[in-house]
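Dear support,

I submitted the protein below through the web form. The confirmation email said the job was done, but the results page showed an empty box. After a refresh the structure appeared. I'm attaching both so you can tell me whether what I see now is the final result or a partial one.
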Amino acid sequence: HDDKQVAAEIMARRFIPAGITAVPWEGFNFVGREIRITEATDSYGAVVWSSALVLCYFLETNAKQYNMVDKNVIEIGAGTGLVSIVASLLGARVTATDLPELLGNLQYNLSRNTKMKCKHLPQVKELSWGVALDENFPRSSNNFDYLLAADVVYAHPFLEELLITFDHLCKETTIILWAMKFRLEKENKFVDRFKELFDLEEISNFPSLSIKLYKAMKKNRRSA
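What the results page shows now:
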């Protein structure tokens, strides 16, 4: 596919409401639905980044190959919840996670866009990377078919904790679908560290957006 043409199609899924609204929101068209997202402007995690649109578009257009129906899905760094909403509309059992201060807006967006529209209502859970993982997400009960992540690597000091979190939440069979915008050298370094624990495959590349979409699974421990 021509990168710029597909990138333009992805970005065209976003629309701004006509006229002034009491609560500012942005609209997105995915899975035949109009999704309304309220953003909080006081935090990185409360804005819809382009990587989320790339991941949503991939989930929608590859629904046969990556069938979400009745699958256990966790999103880390869910932010405003757009990716979790799309996965829910596609039939997944979703756990949307993020930092405590983002959960109110996340829950609001999820409820508003999935109530009476989804087979399984998404759950919201606090997850600070690397913190109390055994307590809040015991390995014995982590049974996720998919882990979704959009733009979780940026200028923050918690990259090692992020890697530990990826590792903790994944079983041998968990598929990670991860969209990332490359801004700094940090992203490349993180990818190198990530490859020590996971087999990583680039499945889409949008140079015009500086975004890559990856699929990853844990390396086979028995052969490691």
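Response: this is the final, complete result; the empty box was a page-load delay. The first strand starts at residue 14 and ends at 15.
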